[in-house]
Amino acid sequence: MTARTHARDSRSTTHCIAVIGAGYVGLPTAATLAHFGHRVVLAEREEKRLAALRSGRMPIVEAGLDDLVAGGVAAGNLSFSASAIEAVVGADFVFLCVPTPQGADGSADLSYVEAAAKEIGPHLEAGTIVVNKSTVPVGSATMVEQVIGRPDIRVVSNPEFLREGTAVVDSLHPDRIVVGADDSQAAARVGELFSSTGAPLIVTDATTSETIKYSSNAFLATKLSFVNALAAVCEEVGADVRDVMLGLGYDKRIGFDFLRPGPGWGGSCLPKDTRALLHIAQEAGYDFSLLAGAIASNEQQLARVLSKVEVACGGSVDGVTVGAWGLTFKANTDDRRDSPSLQITQRLLALGATVQAFDPTVPVAPGGEMGAELVPEDLSGLSLRADPYEAASGASAIVVLTEWDEFRWLDFRRLLGVMAQPSIVDARNLLDPAAVRRLGFTYAGIGRQ
Ligand code: NAD
Ligand code: UGA
Fold first, then answer.
1. Which amino acid residue places its CA nearest to atom 12 of ligand 2?
2. pLDDT tens-place string over residues 189-248
3. CATH top-level class for 13-171?
4. What is the C-alpha to C-alpha distance for residues 213 and 179, in angstroms, rounded to an integer?
């Protein structure tokens, strides 16, 4: 497919839009805007990603994304380009969806945003609105405006709240749309692009909009740290954390969402965004000890899971084989960035364990390991297996790290036959303790007996 540039029609409610960056945010965003009837050119500079998209394959695992993208392409509303410069020609709106990884001091690294702004600046049509959809700190809308350096270009903050694994549903049916700019008309115009979602629209200034995004992720992370800490208390006093959460969840002010204890929160955003907010607060002279505590508590959670595995293996994992189920940071995604599951396997390796790992998104030939040249760097040292049974073979313990639904429905009698010792550490509370104990396994969950 050839890239198409935009023909401008300022009277139309159908707009020409460029999206820069075809990642976990840019790709669903582009496909959603195309689904709403806008004409979208999605620019991606990574050749492999672009080639996959052009041949109709999705470069990421995301339910429903293939259909949404195919629909946009078939309608002639979505096309792809290797060049951000080519994509922005004739565009009314340009969405920046490039990475903002954690910098060395904990602050957000804005180099991709800055580079993209510099690249497209001279090629924008007069009146184009540039939209910061990447998660960026306070002051970034102004920074992008300054980098572009043109009085005829406005920059609007429009943070994204989608979750990986449910990105399509979240994009089509968002809880809210937040837009912020010093030019409220420009902000409202960005809000209108999403009017068919029917979601509440918050129009505010850029600083407030940028603060909303970090606050949201930091609040979610703090909620999880509270839940995981409470699970530790439940273990000590003999309470069942799942019932405690049920009791909490029925309180409408608390709600049921985001109350599942686990191995610690991770992924490409919660860890970096909590640290970025901590950095923003520090720079502003506020000691955000509550948030620092939530981050420290998350570290403790990882260590607690690790020590459960050690206990399951008789006190030490040195020289012991451990089966690890799940490597992604949560189920229904292929993303392993800042994955607690992966961090735990790496710590087990450092403690001298042999780790036989299985994840449904890491393809391995049955009976054989991945060819060395194919093993991604973050998986080096792991003995990758084709299925959960192979991962458990000869192991002294299995640790359930990612909540893939398929782990619930395995033949646990068959597992008994392949393991050196029948022991399960369930860091996601995925399994039924009574059922596996009846079969002869020892079982350790999180926050329950
Ligand atoms: P990603 O790494 O998956 O995707 C970014 C893409 O941008 C990459 O494919 C990269 O090659 C491309 N890119 C970088 N510079 C480019 C340029 N100049 N021209 C063309 N392509 C370019 O990142 P992501 O997970 O989509 O995150 C993007 C931003 O969205 C980050 O700020 C992140 O914090 C934020 N965010 C992410 C999520 C999520 O669930 N992943 C949710 C909300 C917000
Ligand atoms: C998170 C936010 O939920 C999104 O709103 C936000 O847009 C996104 O970050 C972002 O800014 O990138 P995501 O990273 O996809 O989304 O993942 P979550 O579903 O929030 O899970 C984050 C971590 O918390 C995972 O490690 C997950 O396993 C863990 N988690 C989540 C739990 O341990 N228990 C829960 O009940 C929920």
1. 269
2. 999 999 999 999 999 999 999 999 999 999 999 999 999 999 999 999 999 999 999 999
3. alpha beta
4. 11
